[in-house]
Inverse folding.
């Protein structure tokens, strides 16, 4: 990965284009809840209550709103099964998987950061 970073940084870049790309990314996956929701779904939680229980502090209303937004942006797929009672499941899309490596790197960085901060106290 370091070689890729060196390659990117060695060429003239468009600040405007990069800022727009960063803002687009933050718009789609930013906020307090989207990444934990994606992580929950990718860890096998498919039903609304399973996802809700796996994320401490999220409200039902917030989860509902975020799931709708994520579905609109193509990150998750919502499937309604015609049964009694009606069964609704969520799953991550291939498009969502396209930034899976980024999420794993963020988790890795977050763990290292927590260790660094705790060690400094």
């Amino acid at each position: 990965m370091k070689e890729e970073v060196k390659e990117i940084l060695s060429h003239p870049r468009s600040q405007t284009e990069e800022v727009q790309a960063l803002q687009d990314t933050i718009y789609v996956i930013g906020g307090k809840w989207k990444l934990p929701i994606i992580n929950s779904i990718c860890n096998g939680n498919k039903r609304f209550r399973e996802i809700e229980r796996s994320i401490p502090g999220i409200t039902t209303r917030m989860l509902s709103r975020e799931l709708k937004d994520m579905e609109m942006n193509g990150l998750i797929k919502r499937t309604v099964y015609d049964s009694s009672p009606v069964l609704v499941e969520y799953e991550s899309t291939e498009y969502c998987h396209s930034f899976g490596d980024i999420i794993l790197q963020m988790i890795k960085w977050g763990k290292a950061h927590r260790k660094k901060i705790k060690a400094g106290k």
